[in-house]
């Protein structure tokens, strides 16, 4: 659901006094130099997002929702005694995603929201944050992908007609840093390397763990790149062209909701620094929910040490994620396996 003109709903806090000039076309002829004191939040205020969030938080908690202690965009409400009597609301600014097994609970919440705010019901979730959501209610499956976003990137960087490749990286090719460029020198470059790498990072954060290592490598050269680095970034795009439909798949028929943590390390793979690379993958019910490819902060003295460092990072991430798992209803949850 979408909140119409969300930022206009909030009142200015008593301890916050702000003024604005008279708007063009609404200037008082007898007092053209006077200003207005704001009593309501408006778009353009740096305080507006927080004022809106505090208002929404107050409303949701007033009707029985509890906010996740570690993730303030997640609200949960237990209505009855069964696992069907839960409501979950995920907040992204003025967009609310409502989750429940009980359709009537969703309808009741929509009624309450419409009483308080001017809302627009966008129906079932199909697209959010540049991710496509496809659901098969018969087979009880769901998939998340970023196909449209990938196609937009292919067109933006002019490789939509290029031949797809089967891997995101060329094995055995080491990228070497150029001299660090100034901002003016970067602005004069004939290719938008930073823009492309940033776009690829968004894919990694969304639904594409398979390019995490390749994008990590490119991210080291944001101020010291050349044509070789640009070609390496374009190779990832060509790989994505052939795998644009890849993403995350959720199977609702799984008998058990297993919680699995996988870690690995590449010992001393950074030739100049001799630092190792950490990789981890965390899965719940067979779906990846968190992944990482990152350079270790210290120099490991052995393969075993690099593996232990990677294991530590994976377990720390899984401990953080367990906060959400423990707060969300499930009748199939099992313990953690590392």
Automatic annotation (TrEMBL):
<dbReference type="InterPro" id="IPR043502">
    <property type="entry name" value="DNA/RNA_pol_sf"/>
</dbReference>
<dbReference type="Pfam" id="PF07727">
    <property type="entry name" value="RVT_2"/>
</dbReference>
<protein>
    <recommendedName>
        <fullName>Reverse transcriptase Ty1/copia-type domain-containing protein</fullName>
    </recommendedName>
</protein>
<feature type="domain" description="Reverse transcriptase Ty1/copia-type">
    <location>
        <begin position="1"/>
        <end position="169"/>
    </location>
</feature>
<dbReference type="InterPro" id="IPR013103">
    <property type="entry name" value="RVT_2"/>
</dbReference>
């Amino acid at each position: 659901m979408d909140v119409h003109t969300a930022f206009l709903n909030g009142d200015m806090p008593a301890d916050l006094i702000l003024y604005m000039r008279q708007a063009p076309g609404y200037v008082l002829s007898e007092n053209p130099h006077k200003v207005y004191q704001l009593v309501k939040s408006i778009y353009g205020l740096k305080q507006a997002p927080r004022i809106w969030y505090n208002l929404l938080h107050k409303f949701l908690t007033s009707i029985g929702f509890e906010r996740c202690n570690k993730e303030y965009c997640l609200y949960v409400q237990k209505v009855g005694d069964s696992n069907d009597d839960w409501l979950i609301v995920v907040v992204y600014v003025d967009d609310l995603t409502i989750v429940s097994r009980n359709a009537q609970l969703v309808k009741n919440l929509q009624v309450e929201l419409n009483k308080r705010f001017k809302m627009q019901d966008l129906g079932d979730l199909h697209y959010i944050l540049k991710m496509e959501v496809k659901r098969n209610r018969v087979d009880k499956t769901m998939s998340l992908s970023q196909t449209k976003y990938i196609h937009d990137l292919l067109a933006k960087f002019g490789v939509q007609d290029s031949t797809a490749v089967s891997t995101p990286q060329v094995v055995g090719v080491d990228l070497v840093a150029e001299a660090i460029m100034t901002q003016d020198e970067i602005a004069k470059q004939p290719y938008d390397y930073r823009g492309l790498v940033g776009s690829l990072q968004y894919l990694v954060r969304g639904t594409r763990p398979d390019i995490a290592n390749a994008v990590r490598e490119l991210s080291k050269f944001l101020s010291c790149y050349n044509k070789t680095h640009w070609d390496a970034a374009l190779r990832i795009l060509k790989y994505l062209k052939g795998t644009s439909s890849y993403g995350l798949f959720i199977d609702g028929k799984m008998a058990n909701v297993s919680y699995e943590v996988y870690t690995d390390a590449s010992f001393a793979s950074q030739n100049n620094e001799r630092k190792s690379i950490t990789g981890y993958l965390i899965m719940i019910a067979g779906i990846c929910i968190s992944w990482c490819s990152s350079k270790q902060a210290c120099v490991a003295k052995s393969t075993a040490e690099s593996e232990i460092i990677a294991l530590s990072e994976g377990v720390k991430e899984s401990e953080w994620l367990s906060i959400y798992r423990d707060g969300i209803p499930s009748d199939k949850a099992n313990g953690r396996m590392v």
